[in-house]
Amino acid sequence: MTSLRRYGIALFALCASLSAHAAPGALDTASFGSGGNVITAIGTGRGVANAIALQPDGKIVVAGTCWNVNYDFCLVRYLPSGALDTSFGSSGTIVTAIGTGRDVARARALALQPDGKIVAAGECSDSFKTYFCLARYLPSGALDTSFGLGGTILSASGTNYGYANAVALQPDGKIVAAGSCDNGSNADFCLARYLPSGALDTSFNATGRAITAIGASYDFAKALALQPDGKIVAAGVCSNSSNEDFCLARFLTSGALDTSFGTGGKVLSAIGASHDDSSALAIQPDGKIVAAGGCRDGSHHLDFCLARFLTSGALDTSFNTTGTVITAIGASNDVAYALAVQPDGKIVAAGGCDNGSHENFCLARYLPSGTLDTTFGSGGTVTSAIATSENRALALALQPDGKIVAAGYCWNGSGTDFCLARYEGGPFDARNCSMDIDGDNQVLAMTDSLIHTRIALGMTGPAVLNGITFAAHATRTNWSAIQNYLVSQCGMSIAP
How many domains does the chain have? Predict the structure, then answer.
């Protein structure tokens, strides 16, 4: 038997005991914040975390709005443990006033560039008009003065107002933002594309903007995703004269509607008994499109609701037989504001659920078929009371180890604070195995390959790491963390 074959057999078929894992859906009480939660007061009043992104080094970036004389862009960066990263901004937090006049600035979306720069997008007011608003930060948290005007952009989109709810980065570095802008009488879907410098990209629909009417009157784009072929999908809520529906639009890279999608590039889909509002969007590896939000039932209560569409825009009837699924979680109003698709195809939705007296963080996980994943939480759902009242998850991110981080806001007695919770994904539920064993975003001979070789030779325990020097930003630097990664993400069975 060749040494290479022995290596492969040893690497994937070692027999020994498995590491213990907390139940899927349980709060990560062992390694995140206090009891699996983190609450951060930022600004001098109400703080709301609207968006979350994970850096390659495991740090967690959260963006939103907070009150500081007026509402401002607010960002926080956390270490993987949930502690504030004091190398970022002012002891882990940043407050950025943008615009003049009323100076209302709300960050609603977030994206990380490959070079580590952070792009936040939302709305800003200047006098009595509201604009698409973007800010770009260096990894240190300082504004990137090479972007826009001193690191920020105010971009007029509609007659009186326009605001961005979502942002995404193209592989060529261009930035796409989506939201709504007024046309003088009501609101339309509104997209804008920017060059890496922050200037509007006039190769996009000739002006850098695409304004699209979809429903009968008011159309609000709330989520955005880029397909691998470069097409742009936006989702939100649109009026159909009497009620509101889930609605989607797909655009070519030129900014024109993709007429191969739905009807002329647009889709309206009624899901619940009346009001349907899509707030989140994800694209599966097979190209299917998943949207999530809140839908009213026959009693006029809101429930979690999801819809999955084929690449053509038609509902995917292999998903819960109808293409849609509605899930009641709390006592009355349940709305999903965030969505993510795991590598194993399971779908996680997060939002706020009312228990009859106040709102809590809540999550639901679905199998690819659209049925609830009963291995997650209680029958597929999880509810977390973090503060005494008014807890709502607005953003969601999946860690490479399968853990799930939700961010939003929690009541502090007089206002709200940024609020995060991290949940166990469960062993083998979100496989993300790569040769990068130490999690430093590189595969190196004297770290990852050496660890592979030693395990292949039958070594276990701390001896596997003897003499190895890890990069400062590596996320797995001890035997326990590396063993857990290989077991939970690579499907191996390794002795302690």
Answer: 2
Site of tokens 């194993």: 344
Backbone angles phi, psi at 9, to 5 degrees: -65, -45
pLDDT in tens, 216-256: 888 999 999 999 999 999 999 998 877 899 999 999 999 99
164 bridge partner residues: 179
Q: Which DSSP symbol is given to 447?
A: I
Judge if 13 and 83 occupy the same domain: no
Q: CB-based contacts of 103: which residues, under 8 Å, 6+ apart?
A: 69, 70, 71, 72, 97, 125
Domain range for residue 14?
A: 3-20+433-488
Q: How confident is the model at residue 18, as a pLDDT?
A: 33
Task: With H, G, I as helix, E, B as strand and everything else as coil, classify residue 191.
Answer: strand
> SS3 for 438?
coil
Query: What gap in Å lies between CA 239 and CA 288, rounded to an integer?
Result: 24
Tell me how crowded residue 387 is: count the other CB atoms within 10 A of its CB.
Answer: 19
Tens of pLDDT, residues 368-390: 999 999 999 999 999 999 988 88
Q: Mind listing the pLDDT tens digit for each residue in 294-325? A: 998 766 689 999 999 999 999 999 999 999 99
Relative to beta strand 175-182, strand 162-169 is: antiparallel
Q: Which residue has the tokens 């003088």?
A: 184
Residue 496 within any structural domain of the chain: no
Asked whether residue 495 is assigned to any structural domain, the reply reads no
What b-and-e string marks burial along 9-38, b requiring 16 or more CB atoms within 10 Å of the CB? ebbeebeeeeeebbebbbbbeeebbeebbb
* Neighbouring residues of 59: CB distance < 8 A, sequence distance ≥ 6: 77, 78, 79, 80, 85
Q: How many CA atoms lie within 13 A of 63 on its CB side?
A: 28
130: its two tokens: 């509201």
**Do 243 and 380 belong to one domain?**
yes
47 and 147: one domain?
yes
DSSP character at residue 464: G
DSSP 3-state assignment of 445? Answer: helix
Q: Which of 310, 308, 345, 305 is nearest to 325 (CA)?
A: 305
